[in-house]
Amino acid sequence: MSEYSQFFIAFLFFILIECLLKPSKLRKWLSLTFLLGGLLGSVTLSEKSYWGGFDLHLVSLFAIVGGLELFFRRNRHEEDA
What we know:
By secondary structure, the chain is mainly alpha-helical. It has one domain (3-72). The chain has three helices and two strands, in the order H-H-E-E-H. Strands 1-2 form a two-stranded antiparallel sheet. Strand 1 and strand 2 form a beta hairpin. Helix 1 (3-20) runs parallel beside helix 3 (56-72) and helix 2 (24-44) runs antiparallel to helix 3 (56-72). It is flat, with a radius of gyration of 14 Å.
């Protein structure tokens, strides 16, 4: 699979999660899971790691960035009191 299609699929996946996931507690824990999984994946994977045609280093990079984005914007859907 080409890198551009992997970028598109990962970007679309995180856009859907960002738009559809509204509870802040769930966004917080999912973001921490993405962040931890991405960090572990980037440290432990070998240089040429592929699974099902996906470059796993690219997936771990998107997991880190998506986890940080979800964590810092976890209260986006809550109304101000």
